[in-house]
Specification:
302 residues, alpha/beta, Rossmann fold, 5-stranded parallel sheet, globular, binds adenosine monophosphate, binds magnesium ion
């Protein structure tokens, strides 16, 4: 496990004003990390990811069996920060039957004709399951805050501050409702530096096997780096609540972000204190009866 004191630094304290400059993008460059040395950190991070995956597999089975809670994992980031790779690595040990992933793209005309939370509500995990939102309703206060012209019909052409504040309020109320109904919400912002994004985009250009990942749209969005940063800071400030806090995860080193996210997810599910369902008297009788028959098959089963 990662030292909880380190993980606590990634958590956005409810009510605090977020300046992303206060959060590292490369954790291995922090004073704390320098003492350990990069090689040791990488080795430990890989081990922690493996340990967390085993713990997560057990925790997920208990979540499924107890059927009292659901887990909603939200991943938000700038392009190339590693959302897809995180899902692939962190969830690789989990039973696919207990886990569902939804990726949200530009909304359809039908989706835009509903309230902005509609399409996400339909995708929420049922009790006993882990649901992952690869992008989420936070896009509706991020990408459209940078491009208000992409808001749906019925929205103001030039939304003011109040418009966004109401959306934050809707999100906070919606999340409170989910938590009250047994959902554990875990929100991760993968915090990538502009320089590391440049290198990852270049890698997509130089490596033919990664050409399919290259997107001219991503290049265009890079031009709005400062606006995205402001939109993220405002959203993280307004929506990191006691019931659903944000974690700002350093994303320049994939082994760091994956280990941190895997550890936080696993420890949080374990923190729910779940138990296997109690077996009633009748079920115990049926078990005893079955045991008797199975242990002496030929005599009893004639
Ligand atoms: P990707 O996840 O790279 O396939 O890209 C999906 C694209 O859909 C991104 O450019 C998002 O910004 C965009 N997108 C997701 N949700 C919304 C939304 N609610 N409104 C507008 N664009 C969105
Ligand atoms: Mg993309």
């Amino acid at each position: 496990m990662i030292d909880p004191k380190i993980l606590a630094q990634f958590k956005v304290a409810p009510g605090s004003k977020v300046d992303l400059g206060d959060y590292p993008t490369d954790w291995t460059e922090t004073d704390e990390a320098k003492e350990l040395g990069k090689k040791t950190i990488k080795k430990r991070a890989v081990e922690i990811l493996e340990e967390s995956k085993e713990r997560l597999s057990v925790a997920q089975e208990l979540l499924y069996a107890s059927n009292t809670h659901s887990v909603l994992i939200i991943l938000q980031a700038i392009d190339a920060a590693g959302k897809d790779g995180t899902i692939r690595h962190v969830m690789s040990g989990v039973n696919p039957q207990g886990c569902q992933v939804f990726s949200f793209k530009k909304p359809s005309a039908e989706e835009l004709d509903h309230n902005f939370l509609w399409r996400y509500m339909k995708a929420l995990p049922e009790r006993g399951r882990i649901g992952i939102f690869n992008r989420s309703y936070y896009e509706d206060v991020l990408v459209v805050r940078v491009h208000p012209e992409w808001l749906g019909p019925g929205s103001p052409a030039e939304p003011d501050k109040k418009f966004w504040e109401k959306r934050y309020e809707d999100i906070n109320n919606f999340e409170k409702h989910l938590v009250r109904n047994g959902t554990l919400i875990l929100k991760f912002f993968l915090h990538l530096s502009k320089e590391e994004q440049r290198e990852r985009f270049l890698d997509r250009i130089q490596n033919p096997e990664k050409h399919w990942k290259f997107s001219a749209d991503d290049m265009a969005e890079r031009e709005h780096w400062k606006d995205y940063r402001k939109a993220f800071e405002a959203a993280l400030t307004a929506t990191s609540t006691k019931h659903a806090p944000w974690h700002v995860i350093p994303a320049d080193r994939k082994y760091v972000s994956r280990a941190a996210i895997a550890d936080i997810i696993t420890t949080s599910i374990q923190g729910l204190g779940l138990r296997y369902p109690e077996v009633g008297e009748e079920q115990m009788k049926a078990i005893e009866e079955a045991r008797r028959k199975l242990e002496r098959p030929s005599k009893d089963e004639g």
